[in-house]
Amino acid sequence: MTPPTLFITDRLPFLWRLLGVNYRQLRAILAVKLQLDNRRPVAFNQWKKASETNNAYWVSLALYALFGAVFAFLLTVAPATGIVKPATLFFGYVLIVCTMSLISDFSSVVLDSSDNQIMLFRPVDSRTMLTARVVHIISYLFTIALAVGALGVVAIGYRFGAVAGLLSLVLCLMMAILAVFLTNVIYLLLMQFVSNDRLREVINYVQIGMVVFFYGGYQLLPRLMNDDGFSGLQPFVWQTWHYALPPLWSAGSLDLVVNRQIDARHLILLGLALVVPFAGLYLMTRVLAPIFSSKLATLDQEEKAEPVARPISTSQPVAPSLPLAEKLASWLTSSPLEHAGFTFVWFITGRDRKFKLRTYPGLGFGLAYAVVMGLNHQSSMGRQGSSFFLFILYFGGIYIMTALMQIAISDNYKAAWIYESSPMSQPGLLLAGGIKALVIKLMLPYFCLLAGYVLYVQGTSAIPDVLLACVNSLIMLLITAVMSKRHLPFSMAQDVVRNSTTSRSLLSMFIIGLIGVAHWGLTYIPYGRWVALPVMIGVAVVLFRTYQQTQWHEVEN
Amino acid sequence: MTPVIDTHNLIQYYGSTRILQGINLSVAPGQVVGYIGPNGAGKSTTIKTLIGLLPDFQGEVSVLGLDLRTQAMEIKRRIGYVPENAALYDLLTPMEYLNFVGQLYELDSTAVERKALELLRLFSLEYQANDRMTTFSKGMRQKVLLISGLLHNPDLVFLDEPLSGLDANAVVLVKQIIRQLADSGKTVFYSSHIMDVVEKISDRVIIINSGEIIADGSFTELQAQRETGSSLEQLFGQLTGSDGQNTTAEEFIHTLNQ
Known about the structure:
The complex is a heterodimer.
Chain A: H1 4-10, H2 13-19, H3 23-39, H4 54-77, H5 84-104, H6 107-110, H7 114-119, H8 126-160, H9 162-193, H10 196-228, H11 246-258, H12 264-304, H13 324-332, H14 336-351, H15 353-377, H16 383-393, H17 395-407, H18 417-421, H19 427-458, H20 463-483, H21 494-498, H22 503-522, H23 528-548
Chain B: E1 5-14, E2 17-27, E3 32-36, H1 43-50, E4 57-63, E5 66-67, H2 72-78, E6 79-82, H3 94-104, H4 109-122, H5 138-150, E7 156-160, H6 168-183, E8 187-191, H7 195-201, E9 204-209, E10 212-217, H8 219-225, H9 232-239, H10 245-257
Parallel strand pairs in B: 3-8, 3-9, 6-7, 7-8
Antiparallel strand pairs in B: 1-2, 1-4, 4-5, 9-10
Organism (chain A): Fibrella forsythiae
Protein name (chain A): ABC transporter permease
Keywords (chain A): Membrane, Transmembrane, Transmembrane helix
């Protein structure tokens, strides 16, 4: 059976001629890619391997649709004359969701160089290759755009007739194409301005930044809407700079159909909405594809670059100054094995891009959440407010627990044979060193930031809370570590860890919740927190000792 | 006879480092050319340039009589390339993968199917022809890769460590195939670190070091320039300036014992 994507592409020969691609090859590449997606054991695509199962993909689609419902509701209640604002938000949301999924989930596909290794030396031109890649991405992006837009489209179709509904459907898909174009341009710009060596790393940070930015945007959106006042009775005032915002193109086009506003401005907007995505596609395949591919080829080459042969120098290498990790390790660890675990985890967490991409956004979410909620709470500074600040203090702990899950995971997990072949008698020491590195490197700075914020807002009265929360976060981390399956650092493939959620981890979640509630309760007892502090420190030490004693048979691999 | 590969002062940069320092090379058809050099000498870069993967080169290069700058696509159609440790889509079966490759070369699919099955049979992979390659050993993958590089019957073949992972019988078979490809008028450009093999199968040996050709000729010619009776391994050591391996090994053991 022909997959739907191929069924559609088969019907667009004029498009391929226009773009100047070799359709036979394009079809072969697409067919293989779709087939590969079907066969991947975990998910529908290789780029989701990082964090999601197939289920998670559908869940996220459902979530998108749910958010979409909010906009559909706005579209339903807004008066016809004020349709532009809700429509702008609606199409903007489609664009943002598409761009975000491109950046976070599909980037490895956009930047995939394994295709190059297999195809570049064969007689396939870069235009065909890039187009295949783009069509492949778009085919998934359309699904997302449809999930997001479905309710809105139905709402529009129901209120304003089939023509408006169909138009908004098309406009949603245009947003998806535009997202692909924009992301490609962003990556290309990055490639122009960032040296090859740092490109992947910079892209990594851009991804993290974008994810945080959009998440913060979501948090702020309701506030902005309140300010606007969504009565929408006054007609929308068009400004020249509105021509630069794609969601307004679509909203304007809808306005044209719904309110029969047939004037030059609306026709221009409609034209922009329908033409620009295809112009982008054309530009991408005609102009940008060769640049993109050659950039990617060098990116690839760099990874494979053989070490440059140097004449064997007879002089002694200069002893480099001891890196920070080594210094910290010698202060904080007592055995060589713990030392090894500490520095190993410290180095890899700083260098593994995938690890950073999996953990750092969580950190940003926490901050964005803290700030936004803090702003909301500033008006009501009662008892309610202070328990909220307790909650903020535990973000560090929650964040570090996800990081703990992640240090077991590596793409390079096969290298873990070294543990097995080494005469290591007590793997607990290595684990303990690793957990120390995590706490020092990731949790403490973050916790200090949050604590600083809380102290700034709450004043010195929050000091016992800060101290207790710090110890409690450590306890939570150690409970998770002790109760869940123990894996040596970077020794697991992604899929294995993901599937190992057990009742034990549920139990530990329960205990963790209990600790948080207990802290909240203690705030009502005079000196309760000061009494609890030494007790909890004792508990933490005991837990750490237990973890340190981990034997081989307790380690899962 | 037009040379199959003809480069004139080929220079290639990586960033600001000059990797190839002006390679002059002329290869006649029907030869097996062994292209050897230490790590980082520029072997892979040369090959990647010749097959059109690195278009930003300086100098004149023609492959199969075609200009590499303007006719790269035509060249790609007529050459075969088997990279070292190459990636392949291992979720596919060998047949699916070879069909896919055939489509990229725009070959007739029924012919590809017949040919691929036959070639797999000759490599004793007929029973695995429809199994996914995820479970394949390195040698089995290498066999599929070799077939995928030769499927379109290229006139010029670039092989980078083609014997890696193959078992002893397959090694003999592939060496024979390389020989007979050359005997039938095709050209094989062979890059490897295993000197014994290069010595045995090459009609011509080219040694490069730091981006420059430092020796070029048949094995006997190279031998004649140095002491007769030495192996290619020894020649290679002398030419690339690291023939003090014995002393280095001694030092190595000494350091271990400290």
